[in-house]
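Appendix B. Chain record.
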Amino acid sequence: MTFRRLAAWLLAAVASYQAHAAEELRLQAEYPLEGMAGGNLSALARCDGQLWAVSDRDDQWLYRLQPQVGVWQAEAQPLQVPPPPATALTWGLAWRNRLSGLVRGGVLDFEGLSCDAAGNRYVLSEAYSAVLRVTPQGQGEWLAIAPEVFRLARASGLLLDYNALAEGLAVAADGQRLWLAAEQRRRGLLVLQPHRSGWGCSDPCVLLAEGGEQQAPAALGGERLAIDFSDIVRRGDKLFTLERQAHQFCRRDAHSAQVERCWSYAATALAAPRLYPGVDYGTAEALWLDDDAAWIGIDNNEVVRADGEARPVLWQFAAPAGGWEAS
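Structure tokens predicted for this chain:
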């Protein structure tokens, strides 16, 4: 490599790093959540002007989050959930998921939440890799997802490992496109749209499939952990992926999944009072973005925080100057 080509490569690498370097967010408020029967806050979405949440330990509730001074109240709203569909997961994964759910609670293992402009809620079951569409009246119906989606996902190395399956969900406002985030060991993004026979692949079906590891912060033990996605949000033509192990979320092009910009919440998450003793991984499971704020939900998995807080926690961060879409 000539000196000129080496210099050009270094300049490009520096420019790429600067473009993707995460800006630290400013914490505005922290709200413990009361009223989540099983705890384990696992997804957020703003529907009809209100924040809603799900828990991966409760199969029969959606939670409407009601702001109060200091502590927010999670109001349980009943779900009418029909029997889950036949899973497209391998036999071994399917049975392991069911047994785990029976032991710990939450057989469906809700891990994603989104809504469309018509007021329908969409809830992702990790245990079945299935999506429940819930009408404004609370009636649930499982979407028919074509087997080819899972064949292509597995061919790309996605949805193959126990407890590392579909972890995030985003839906277009018109309800005609749906994105799924595969969690880890190989993380990825899938995009689906309705066809005559059910929900099938868009073009392409697999937007992203990648593996790799990164070193955890020293405060969490410094071990190498798989890169991951723990939630996904759609705004306009952008996707925002919550990357739990990196303590950040990133804006991506919704058609190519190319990273455009990232924001970090590491200073908040790694502050000594907010650490969870014995937990050597990130705990952020839920993301939602308003014009003026980012909301991140913490799944404490029933572990008591260093400062004694035992409830799920919601963080509110100020949006950056120029908003989430600014370059």
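Further analysis of this model is presented in Appendix C.
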